[in-house]
Design brief:
The complex is a heterodimer. Chain A is an alpha+beta fold. Chain A folds into three domains: about 140 residues, no CATH class; about 100 residues, Orthogonal Bundle (Helix Hairpins), CATH 1.10.287; about 150 residues, Histidine kinase-like ATPase, C-terminal domain (Heat Shock Protein 90). Chain A is about 50% helix and about 20% strand. The longest helix of chain A has about 50 residues. Chain A is rod-shaped. Chain B has two domains: about 180 residues, 3-Layer(aba) Sandwich (D-Maltodextrin-Binding Protein, domain 2), CATH 3.40.190; about 140 residues, Periplasmic binding protein-like II (D-Maltodextrin-Binding Protein, domain 2), CATH 3.40.190. Helix content of chain B is about 40%, strand content about 15%. In chain B, helix 5 packs parallel to helix 8 and helix 8 crosses helix 13. Chain B starts with a helix and ends with a helix. Chain B is globular, with a radius of gyration of 20 Å. In chain B, strand 5 and strand 6 form a beta hairpin. In chain B, the strands form two sheets. A seven-stranded mixed beta sheet of chain B has the order 1-3-2-4-13-6-5, with helices on both faces. In chain B, strands 7, 8, 9, 10, 11, 12 and 14 form a seven-stranded mixed beta sheet that branches. Classes of the chains: A alpha+beta, B alpha/beta. The complex binds adenosine-5'-triphosphate and magnesium ion.
């Protein structure tokens, strides 16, 4: 099973980018909207001053002795003073004829306000006229007034700077908020991940803690997936137990019939055949038992569940259970080593492994020999089973732990070649190893070691 | 090539226009490739110390100083702005109009208070009030008038003494005279009454302050109205009978201004000169000067004419014609 997951994109990045991007666009919009509004307001300000100025100029026109007189008011120009010392131009026309001022400034009939280029700078112009009616005279006075826009652009620059600062501030705040919102949202997912990771391997119960509404469908499907998994797992456990039962029981029956028949058969060659039959049945029964044990080991190793146990106590219990059988075979089984070796592991698996090792020593040792079990805590928790038999065939010692692999010395012994495989699987499942050695003074030694 | 041409042009125009100038002087001759040409309305004797200080500090700059009347400066400068590097004039309105019309080169690097500059192109460097200068002997036993109103009363009281012996600017010929007159007229009606009284007494008309002061000291006239106090002071110091009166009702104060021609070929030297001018004439440096320094106090307390576009109003031809007609009606009553 591979632990890596195909990753495409990041929710966090996408969220942050969307929110920050949105904030940036908003900040820009804000900037341009306020700026264009400011331009409008500032222009209106200049326009209204120009308008007032030109109105007071027109107001000063009088008809005297049948001729138009225009005494430009000083104030009309005073009011055009600006902080940037803007230049001022004007032109006065009577019925289209130039009277005074700047002749290059043309009167515009339709549009009162215009922005145009004059003598190298942008000027805002206002055109206004007044009809004068005298005794026998009707005439139009037209005035164009122009002013450069230096003060206006200074004001606009200042406004732009302020608005830009405001926009940047708005953006920074929105960015900070979006980071916060994103991590708060992703935090919920992280929380769920942690609670999934923290679960024991056998814990397939549904999640009970409340989750945000948007995550409810995900948690719901997770719960239903785990429910189905739980169900199929218990089904396969049941299946293994069921299979063991179904194979062993009929074999036991067949064996008891064969034993009974053997008692009644007298002819030596028939008895021989019956004995071979019993041996074959034993062989099958052993194989079935070991196969199921192996299947159980594999299953439990895949879903390893660790309990706090004392290895010394566990071995002692096993030794006690096996003593009658050992005695029957005229062997001695002794346990020594540390007084207590606490370890977190699966007791059923460890017992199964140790049982297989003792089983081997019993099978391959001569009568009246001793089997020693040593349990030690240092450097790592380990259980060593040694006997006084012939030891492992030294040329096969490397391969004996493989499945169905039996040694040359095992030809006459009933077995399936799975014992050491089971012991090794148990060791590996607990992060340890299985070590086969031959003692110099004779006898095999197998060490089952665990990691912390 | 171009350099020779410029030289040739300068010598040509100098030769052609030699008699057209009131005065013409070259400072630090041979100090530079070509001289910095300053067209000015300020008398050479008042301005020379400044130029001399400038050329000692800038030995590689030669200065040609050309003196003419304020109205003439405006006319010549407009006609050929490339002929001059700097224009200095006491007619603030004409100078402001030159700058407004784009004849002045903006000098962004010059630090000067806002009230004393316009568009970084026109720089004020003196504060000079318009004064009434009287011959004390003529007022023997009579109080010396301290305001326009008192002057009107004094003139009316003894017309036989003052007939043909008072002087003022001919505003038609002098730009500064026109500036003072229009500002006076703007401030109070007293001005027109004074003009009428002066007209009735056949006042003499002058086109410059120095001529008026000359006639005052030689006794041709005994009262001069709207004379530059700065010109009268050295004479009053020598000549005990002259008294300078700053009208207590509203003293009109003018600021002399300088601008660099937009078409100058010596922008660097011209800017250095303006920089020198404004710092030399700054009131706080305590130097002894021939021209009154720029005074912030004057600008605030006295009615100093402001550098603002309103100065353009009286330069409008219609308005000017109307003003001159009224002035002629008041002053020239034959
Ligand atoms: N204590 C021992 N002394 C000598 N040889 C041993 C010992 N234990 C195991 N072996 C050798 O290793 C082989 C593999 O042992 P393993 O326990 O896997 O199989 P088995 O004992 O033959 O069958 P079973 O699956 O029934 O245990 C044995 O066939 C035997 O040759
Ligand atoms: Mg075995």
């Amino acid at each position: 099973m591979s632990n890596s997951v195909e990753v495409s994109g990041s929710l966090r990045n996408r969220l942050v980018l969307t929110l920050i991007g949105g904030a940036a666009v908003l900040a820009m919009l804000l900037f341009f909207a306020v700026r264009s509004y400011a331009v409008q307001v500032a222009q209106q300000g200049q326009d209204s001053i120009l308008e007032a100025s030109v109105a007071s100029m027109l107001d000063a026109a009088t008809i005297r002795d049948g001729a138009v007189e225009l005494d430009l008011p000083y104030s009309a120009f005073s009011m055009l003073s600006t902080s940037a010392d803007d230049r001022v131009f004007y032109a006065i026309y009577q019925d289209g004829t130039f009277l005074s001022g700047y002749e290059d400034l043309a009167y515009s009939e339709g549009q009162p306000f215009e922005t145009q280029l004059m003598r190298g700078s942008d000027v805002r112009t206002v055109s206004a006229s007044r009809t004068m009616i005298g005794a026998d005279l009707r005439t139009d006075i037209q005035i164009v007034l122009a002013q450069t826009q230096d003060a206006l652009s200074e004001t606009l620059d200042q406004i732009s700077r302020n608005v830009a600062l405001f926009g940047i501030g708005f953006f920074a705040l929105a960015a900070a908020l979006s980071f916060w919102a994103t991590s708060a949202t992703i935090g919920q997912l992280d929380k769920l991940t942690i609670s999934v990771t923290r679960r024991g391997p056998q814990d397939l119960s549904p999640f009970a803690k409340p989750v945000p509404q948007e995550m409810a469908p995900l948690v719901k499907s997770l719960n239903s997936l785990m429910g189905r998994l739980d169900q199929s797992l218990s089904q396969s456990e049941d299946f293994i137990a069921e299979a063991a039962h179904r194979v062993r029981t009929p074999l036991a029956t067949v064996r008891s019939y064969a034993e009974a028949t053997l008692q009644r058969v007298d002819k030596e060659e028939n008895r021989e055949a019956m004995r071979s039959m019993v041996k074959a049945i034993d062989e099958s029964s052993r194989a079935a038992g070991q196969l199921l044990d192996h299947a159980m080991t594999t299953f439990r190793a895949d879903h390893l569940e660790r309990d706090d146990i004392d290895l010394v106590e566990l071995v002692a219990e096993l030794v006690q259970r096996l003593t009658p059988i050992v005695d029957m075979k005229d062997l001695t089984l002794t346990q020594n080593g540390d007084g207590q070796v606490p370890y977190a592991g699966d007791p059923i698996l460890i017992q199964s492994a140790v049982r297989n090792l003792i089983d081997n020593s019993m099978k391959y040792s001569p009568v009246e020999s001793a089997i020693t079990i040593t349990v030690a805590a240092d450097p790592a928790p380990r259980i060593t089973v040694c006997d006084q038999g012939p030891g492992f065939p030294s040329n096969e010692i490397e391969t004996l732990t493989a499945r169905f692999q039996r040694g040359a010395n095992a030809a006459t012994t009933i077995g399936s070649g799975l014992g050491l495989t089971i012991a090794q699987d148990v060791a590996l499942a607990h992060g340890g190893a299985l070590h086969l050695t031959n003692q110099p003074e004779g006898g095999a030694c197998v060490t089952l070691s665990f990691s912390h | 090539m171009r350099y020779t041409l410029v030289l040739a042009l300068i010598s040509l125009s100098a030769a052609a226009g030699a008699q057209e100038w009131e005065d013409r002087q070259l400072f630090n001759e041979g100090g530079g490739d070509s001289a910095l040409r300053i067209i000015s309305s300020t008398d050479t004797n008042l301005f020379a110390p400044l130029i001399e200080t400038f050329v000692t500090r800038n030995p590689d700059v030669a200065v040609e100083y050309l003196v003419t009347g304020t109205a003439d400066i405006d006319r010549r400068f407009r006609a050929s702005p490339g002929d001059f590097d700097i224009a200095i004039s006491s007619a603030m309105d004409l100078q402001l109009k030159l700058a407004n019309d784009g004849f002045a080169l903006p000098l962004e690097d010059i630090e000067h208070p806002a009230w004393a500059e316009w568009r970084k192109s026109l720089f004020a460097f003196t504060s000079e009030p318009a004064a009434i200068v009287v011959n004390r002997e003529a007022f023997d036993g009579h109080p010396i008038p301290q305001s326009r109103q008192e002057l009107i009363e004094a003139l009316r009281a003894r017309p036989e003494i003052f007939h043909d012996r008072i002087g003022t600017y001919d505003v038609r010929r002098s730009g500064l005279g026109y500036l003072f007159a229009t500002q006076d007229a703007r401030a109070s009606e007293t001005f027109w009454r004074l003009m009428e009284v002066m007209g009735a007494l056949d006042a003499r008309l002058y086109s410059s302050s120095s001529q008026m002061i000359e006639d005052l000291s030689n006794g041709t006239i005994i009262v001069a109205y709207n004379v530059l106090g700065s010109y009268a002071e050295p004479r009053a110091a020598r000549d005990d009978v002259l008294e300078i009166v700053l009208p207590s009702d509203f003293p009109t104060t003018m600021m002399r201004t300088a601008l660099v021609s937009q078409e100058t070929t010596q922008a660097g030297a011209a800017e250095a000169f303006i920089q020198f001018l404004v710092s030399y004439q700054w009131e706080d440096d305590g130097e002894a000067r021939t021209l009154p320094p720029l005074s912030e106090e004057d600008a605030i307390e006295r009615a100093t004419i402001g550098l603002e576009p309103a100065l353009l109003a009286f330069l409008d031809t219609l308005k000017r014609d109307k003003f001159l007609t009224e002035w002629e009606n008041a002053l020239i009553q034959d």
